[in-house]
Amino acid sequence: MLHSHLTTLNAVSLVLDTFSAEGWGSEALLAGSGITEADLKRPDIRITTFQEMQVCANAVALRREIGLPLGRRMHVSSYGILGYALLTSGTFGDALRLALEYPALLGTLFELQLIEDGDCIWFSASDYRDDEGLRVFNAELCMASLKVICDDLLGKPLPLLGARFAHDAPDYQASYRESFGCTLHFNAEDNAFAFDKRWLDQPLTLADPVTHRDMRERCRRQNIEFTGRQAWLGRIRHLLAGQLDQTPSLGVLAQKMNCSERTLRRHLQATGSSYQQLLDELRFERAKQLLQDEQLPIHRIAEALGFSETASFRHAFIRWSGVAPSQFRV
């Protein structure tokens, strides 16, 4: 899937902090993402969800069970303006319903719903449409972080009546019990946890109508920032993706976008991206797909991606993934 909406560096920073405590440097985790050390020090930077997921993929390659520990560290304050809007909501139910209005600000890759089932509510995450190799990781990260948000809003652990997951039961279920503390079910239709619906009416300690109205308005504006360029970026990606074997120059691309080269460059910079970064993202995605065909020679893949020499493709793929194309196939 090609990612086109923006997000902050919050999740990336959390990944780096988590692995730093275990002695890992940032180089391996940032490989192929286009994010630099300098970017990490910029408070105003925006990145694409493709970049964020590349860092997560690197993290999973180092520790496949990292989703739940990361989720447990994603407190409501990790969500910036949205987090404060949730905290100042009148009731727990108000806060959850507000969260559902802004999935881009939550950074979720799922369709979130509150499903009433008798006397309980299921907080459900379904309809995953991203990298299949990261499905379990993203489900674990999503559900564990949602549980932490609930706990933070209430100021105490939300008692769960059950939790279910769409994937197979892993061999590290102790981490699931630590995250959810309830009966677990796997191979379900969705990812969800249940709680008594009476909690929805629970007043929040930090409720403040004036601050809440201000935060809601800021959420609306930030949501436009994160998603408003989605169609624009999507068109650029579409144009590039269709010509990877003969990639258009920045000037030609600008003509197709009906703007000047300078304007195109400025818009890309505003999204925290660049022409080369978008091209690298698309080439990397396509390369991973083509490498799955073991009968396709690597030099043919290089040609399909617009590289004049196989060696250039090999160097680029190592930069993107940390391994050579031939090793990626193993």
Could you list some keywords that capture this structure?
5-stranded mixed beta sheet, 330 residues, two-stranded antiparallel ribbon, alpha+beta, Arc Repressor Mutant, subunit A, 7 strands
Q: Can you walk through the features of this model?
A:
With 330 residues, this protein is of the alpha+beta class. The chain folds into three domains: 1-63, no CATH class; 68-225, no CATH class; 229-329, Orthogonal Bundle (Arc Repressor Mutant, subunit A). Helices cover 53% and strands 9% of the residues. The strands form two sheets. It has a five-stranded mixed sheet with strand order 3-4-7-5-6. A two-stranded antiparallel ribbon has the order 1-2. Strand 5 (162-164), helix 9 and strand 6 (184-185) form a beta-alpha-beta unit. Helix 1 (10-20) runs parallel beside helix 3 (49-62) and helix 12 (250-256) crosses helix 13. Keywords: DNA-binding, Transcription, Transcription regulation. This is Transcriptional regulator, AraC family. Residues 234-330 form the HTH araC/xylS-type domain. GO terms for molecular function: DNA-binding transcription factor activity; transcription cis-regulatory region binding.
